[in-house]
Amino acid sequence: MRIDHLINGRPVAGSQYFETVNPATQAVLAEVAAGGAAEVDAAVQAAKAAFPAWAGLPAPERARKIRALGDLITKHVPELAQTETKDTGQSISQTGKQLVPRAADNFHYFAEMCVRVDGHTYPTPTHLNYTLFHPVGVCALISPWNVPFMTATWKVAPCLAFGNTAVLKMSELSPMTAARLGELALEAGIPAGVLNIVHGYGRDAGEPLCAHPDVRAISFTGSTATGNRIVQAAGLKKFSMELGGKSPFVIFADADLDRALDAAVFMIFSNNGERCTAGSRILVQQSIYADFAAKFAERAKRITVGDPLDEQTIIGPMISPGHLAKVRHYIELGPKEGATLLCGGLEAPELPAHLAQGNFVRPTVFADVDNRMKIAQDEIFGPVACLIPFEDEAEAIRIANDTAYGLSSYVWTENLGKAHRVAAAIEAGMCFVNSQNVRDLRQPFGGTKASGTGREGGTWSYEVFLEPKNIAVSM
Ligand code: NAD
């Protein structure tokens, strides 16, 4: 199979191709066009040319096409989920039941929203001030390899619904479902040039895209290191930067411990632990720490690692051999830093022969972790949990905030006042109280500190995809 760029509604061959492989088997899935500055420029020019007509469409007409794309995704859930699972190693139970349906939701939601964009009026005795929201123009949308389809659609849907045109660049490690998205967008009646897709590596395709003078806004999801690089190289543009995390999952002794345990297991081991909002630092109050740690490790040992196409599998392969090596590095580092390995570790999981070459790792739990250890400070982005004891509320807040990151956070307590106090005190873009991460498309999604700038979701997506203009009329 060959995947080309999509520029101005047509497949465009690359001058070079790279392979995307199934991380469970290393089988080659497709040859993918490797774009550079020339393809980026052609895609930006196509998006620029398509912009006036698309922005000029009445919102209900745009909404119809955006909704049609959501419907097409819904129709193709099984196919898209299979492709996503093969390309990323994310389990089919997640891609089929959660991630691809959520991609359809993104289009349905923003189709509803774009007809409701309104302004404000500020009348005074001398002037009538009012605001208009204009689309920004050509937007660069850059997606990482974890949950790539959901993430790409989370950007494409508001971008297009609000009247912008786009150049989408997927991660070189997971480009396949986006290629289908391009085809489905055309089938939904979205005109040629409105959604363009350039494949390729970050330095070759991503960098010229972000630096392109005709790109007006960048919505980027990826690592903090790349986010920093983009901000420095891109010049004056609108930015939304959704970056890395090392989110605290704080459990007080008075929590509903059965529910907390379920949620803690889910937040670090679902999606292979390759999740920006993973509750990767599990802070547990000292009085319940030993008991909780034993139960948590028992649950982790029972997690099914295996073929991501099997409905029973929870943890599939890591995305690439390079990423597997990174995760294994931290598993090796834990005991050297003084942490106690409760389960998992470096020994390869037992798997059937067809998965022998896959990038698999056992779910791993470290206890007695000190928050200053590297395993507690660095984003591992794999199924590795760090259990950190704390004494009281003040210490929980101090440890929770002792990190470069500030994406998500989780607080578990039955004490109402404490729940609100701790939720307010944690430095993070999001806090879930007595809950795992549950996405509401209206909520502001994003992080603070090294986890990024800007928020997306609901009207928060105006920030990057719409330009407010004030008009003052003398009375
Ligand atoms: P990455 O930063 O390596 O790559 C992300 C994307 O940026 C890829 O498409 C890549 O090709 C591109 N890229 C790389 N260098 C570039 C450059 N110089 N200019 C422009 N584009 C460039 O990240 P990754 O390894 O693909 O993804 C994992 C990271 O993403 C983790 O840190 C994770 O926390 C983060 N993430 C954050 C969120 C969030 O919402 N905050 C969601 C998912 C993933």
TrEMBL record:
Keywords: NAD, Oxidoreductase. GO terms for biological process: 4-hydroxyphenylacetate catabolic process. The gene is hpaE. Residues 16-471 form the Aldehyde dehydrogenase domain. NCBIfam families: HpaE (TIGR02299). GO terms for molecular function: 5-carboxymethyl-2-hydroxymuconic-semialdehyde dehydrogenase activity; aldehyde dehydrogenase [NAD(P)+] activity. SUPFAM superfamilies: ALDH-like. This is 5-carboxymethyl-2-hydroxymuconate semialdehyde dehydrogenase. It comes from Ideonella aquatica. The lineage of its organism: Bacteria, Pseudomonadati, Pseudomonadota, Betaproteobacteria, Burkholderiales. The active site is at E242. Gene3D superfamilies: Aldehyde Dehydrogenase, Chain A, domain 1, Aldehyde Dehydrogenase, Chain A, domain 2. InterPro entries: Ald_DH/histidinol_DH (IPR016161), Ald_DH_C (IPR016163), Ald_DH_CS_CYS (IPR016160), Ald_DH_CS_GLU (IPR029510), Ald_DH_N (IPR016162), Aldehyde_DH_dom (IPR015590), DH_HpaE (IPR011985). Belongs to the aldehyde dehydrogenase family.
